[in-house]
């Protein structure tokens, strides 16, 4: 969709007897903006009214309406102030406007819904509509005074300009979706070659027979955005989604310019290639490779010598350029970051700039120093928080923001020593020990670090205090490697095959009293609810596929997990979450409907926090309620969550272990 302003006429306003959307007549339109003439014509008589073409606008004022008689009088007064038309196109355009207004119905409607960037019915939308009405009244007063200065854009306008808009009886884009039609249905396409339908421009790209290089753009209702008479070549319609079209002329195919989506020339052709980066930024590259960043729509030079640009995951833009040095060590590419309108966020002085965090606006940067890449931190104002003197700074990937643990960031300094950095880039303690393992996520945990002292692996807290000695570094690394291998299925040990039981085998051994005791663990001791849980579980087993099998070392053990499933998914006392479902943590009460969780919020959530931190936050919230969060089966990619009373935690863990489950009690 292209945001478009439109003028219509109608015999009645919504709410009046006789109003019929089928009788609305299109008069004019303009993409991306509201032409001055549209505002002038609704003038002093403008009133806000509902407009049922939009669902939300059926009972809510969302467009401006004015008597057509007033619009006709305003056009006559404006025409009297205008100079005589200078060319045939201007004569035709003025005649078309006069004809369409004269033949219009009693009410003129200015549909500006798409160009007020708020939802219909909100105070912001109402304020935007009122501001537009005030503009219309001011222009009407200027016309009454004969104030040519205030009306200059209209008095100087030619045919189909940003001040007057495009006028045609077929300008009905707002009355139906603009979409591709069969070429044989459209008379104006007869005799032309249809290159293709350009969805982002809502146009057919066409060429004349025998001249395929010269192309134009025309809408399904016959509006020529780019007439073939302009003899444009190399139309860059793939930038239409950003609001622009690049082009060259047949006479100078190596010079490129920019059109807006109305076909108005914004930047005349100049030598070189053009690449639209954002709706506000344009890269221009000369034939010799020299490049620069220009601002749209005025073409002002923002940055000279920009070699590469690309969009980032955090919504900003990477830029890259080469340094001025001529020696091999000094001659290198440096990177910086811009926002979408071209403002420098981080100056081009770094070897890399990683993404900024969504909450803590901090990014990891690197510089090449004495032949090695070292890392530091910058904020979103481009200020260097931590100088580039660290061998590594903890983050999820090579483009991610730094990972926060208790508002601290793990780093390894240039000497290979482990430390934690505060959010302002300061060291939380003096580095003394190297990390015990090089693998990401092993050297630092949520509450402590693994470091090396005198050949032994130790845990150390985030203040630099040693906590506990584990083993030699070699044994520590071997144990970690074995754990990782087993987790990834690389262990040479054959997995022990779990036993499984059919519904009939489980039902034959079912002890209702024992099952109710087990169910009560999941249901905070509610005996009645536990009895219902058992009944539901056994009833479903009785109706189950007789060949279905459930894992467990005994039938009672298999039933243990089924009881949890019933308590969780039928009675709302638990849930299953994927290991990546971090965004579901703040909404945990929607999954586990317990009063203790209704005021839960993850207020301390930081960039990079994963499920482990989220579950810890839930557990901390439950603790004052004498409740414990449980995961039925630890060590898997899925969390089988529930809640037990603190007094039942030991009994739950014992029962789960009997079922060969590996429970986690938080």
Give a description of the structure:
This protein is 23% helix and 30% strand. The chain contains 12 helices and 37 strands. Strands 3-4-5-1-2-6 form a 6-stranded antiparallel sheet. With 666 residues, the chain is of the alpha+beta class. Strand 19 and strand 20 (317-322) form a beta hairpin.
A few lines on this structure:
The chain is an alpha+beta fold. The chain contains twelve helices and 37 strands.
Give a quick set of tags describing it:
about 675 residues, alpha+beta, six-stranded antiparallel β-sheet, 12 helices
Percent helix range: 10-25%
Strand order of the largest sheet: 3-4-5-1-2-6
Helices, by number, come to 12
Unreliable segments of 5+ consecutive residues: none
Main beta sheet strand tally, sense and closure: 6 strands, antiparallel
Topology:
Layout (H helix, E strand, L loop, with lengths): L3 E7 L14 E7 L4 H7 L4 E3 L13 E5 H14 L6 H15 L4 E5 L11 H23 L6 H4 L10 E2 L24 E7 L4 E6 L2 E8 L5 E3 L5 E5 L7 E6 L2 E9 L4 E7 L1 E6 L2 E5 L5 E5 L5 E4 L3 E4 L5 E6 L10 E6 L5 E7 L1 E2 L8 E8 L2 E8 L4 E10 L15 E5 L4 E4 L26 E6 L2 E6 L4 E7 H15 L12 E2 L1 H7 L2 H11 L4 H16 L7 E2 L3 H16 L3 E5 L32 H12 L4 E5 L6 E8 L3 H10 L5 E2 L1
Antiparallel strand pairs: 1-2, 1-5, 2-6, 3-4, 4-5, 7-8, 8-9, 9-10, 11-12, 12-13, 13-14, 15-16, 16-17, 17-18, 19-20, 20-21, 21-22, 23-24, 24-25, 25-26, 26-27, 27-28, 29-30, 30-31, 32-33, 34-36, 35-36, 35-37
Helix pairs in contact: 1-4, 2-3, 7-10, 8-9, 8-10, 9-10
């Amino acid at each position: 969709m292209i945001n478009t302003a439109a003028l219509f006429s109608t015999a009645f306003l919504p709410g009046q007897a006789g109003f019929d959307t089928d009788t609305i007549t299109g008069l004019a339109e303009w993409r991306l903006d509201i032409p001055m003439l549209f505002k002038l014509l609704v003038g002093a008589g403008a009133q806000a009214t509902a407009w049922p073409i939009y669902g939300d606008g059926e009972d809510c004022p969302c467009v401006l309406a004015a008597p057509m008689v007033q619009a006709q009088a305003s056009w006559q007064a404006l025409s009297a102030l205008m100079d005589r038309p200078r060319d045939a196109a201007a004569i035709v355009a003025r005649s078309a406007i006069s004809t369409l207004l004269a033949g219009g119905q009693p009410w003129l409607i200015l549909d500006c819904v798409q160009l007020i960037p708020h939802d219909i019915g909100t105070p912001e939308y109402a304020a935007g509509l009122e501001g537009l009405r005030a503009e219309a009244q001011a222009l009407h007063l200027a016309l009454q005074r004969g104030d040519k200065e205030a009306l200059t854009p209209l008095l100087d306008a030619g045919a189909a300009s940003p001040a007057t808009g495009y006028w045609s009886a077929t300008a009905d884009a707002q009355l139906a979706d603009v979409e591709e039609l069969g070429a044989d249905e459209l008379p104006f396409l007869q005799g032309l070659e249809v290159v293709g339908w350009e969805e982002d421009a809502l146009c057919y790209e066409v060429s004349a027979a025998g001249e395929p290089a010269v192309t134009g753009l025309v809408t399904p209702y016959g509006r020529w955005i780019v007439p073939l008479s302009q003899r444009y070549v190399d139309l860059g319609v793939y930038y239409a989604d950003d609001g622009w079209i690049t082009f060259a002329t047949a006479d100078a195919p190596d010079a490129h310019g920019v059109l807006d989506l109305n076909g108005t020339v914004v930047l005349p052709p100049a030598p070189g290639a053009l690449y639209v980066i954002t709706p506000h930024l344009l890269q221009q590259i000369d034939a010799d490779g020299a490049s620069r960043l220009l601002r749209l729509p005025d073409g002002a030079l923002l940055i000279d010598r920009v070699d590469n640009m690309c969009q980032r995951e955090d919504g900003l833009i990477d830029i890259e350029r080469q340094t001025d040095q001529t020696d091999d060590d000094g001659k290198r590419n440096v990177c910086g970051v811009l926002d979408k309108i071209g403002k420098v966020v981080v100056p081009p002085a770094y070897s890399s700039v990683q993404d900024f965090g969504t909450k803590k606006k901090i990014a990891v940067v690197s510089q090449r120093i004495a032949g090695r890449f070292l890392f530091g931190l910058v904020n979103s104002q481009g200020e260097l928080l931590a100088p580039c003197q660290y061998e590594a700074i903890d983050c999820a990937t090579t483009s991610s923001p730094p990972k926060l643990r208790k508002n601290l960031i793990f780093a390894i300094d240039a000497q290979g020593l482990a430390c934690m950095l505060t959010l302002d880039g300061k060291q939380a303690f003096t580095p003394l020990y190297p990390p015990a393992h090089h693998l990401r996520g092993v050297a630092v945990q949520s509450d402590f670090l693994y470091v090396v002292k005198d050949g032994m692996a130790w845990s150390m807290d985030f203040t630099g205090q040693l906590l506990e000695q584990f083993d030699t570094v070699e044994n520590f690394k071997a144990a970690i490697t074995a754990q990782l291998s087993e987790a990834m299925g690389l262990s040479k040990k054959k997995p022990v095959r779990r036993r499984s039981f059919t519904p009939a085998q489980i039902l034959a051994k079912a002890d209702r009293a024992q099952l109710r005791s087990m169910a009560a663990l999941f249901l905070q001791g509610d005996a009645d609810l536990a009895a219902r849980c058992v009944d539901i579980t056994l009833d479903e087993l009785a109706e189950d596929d007789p060949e279905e099998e459930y894992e467990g070392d005994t039938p009672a053990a298999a039933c243990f997990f089924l009881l949890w499933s019933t308590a969780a998914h039928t009675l709302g006392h638990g849930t299953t979450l994927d290991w990546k479902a971090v965004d579901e943590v703040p909404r945990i009460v929607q999954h586990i409907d317990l009063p203790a969780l209704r005021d839960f919020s993850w207020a301390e959530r930081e960039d990079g926090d994963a499920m482990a931190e989220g579950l810890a936050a839930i557990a901390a919230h439950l603790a004052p309620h004498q409740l414990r969060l449980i995961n039925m089966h630890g060590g898997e990619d899925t969390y089988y969550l529930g809640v037990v009373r603190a007094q039942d935690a030991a009994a739950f863990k014992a029962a789960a272990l009997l079922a060969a489950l590996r429970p986690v009690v938080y």
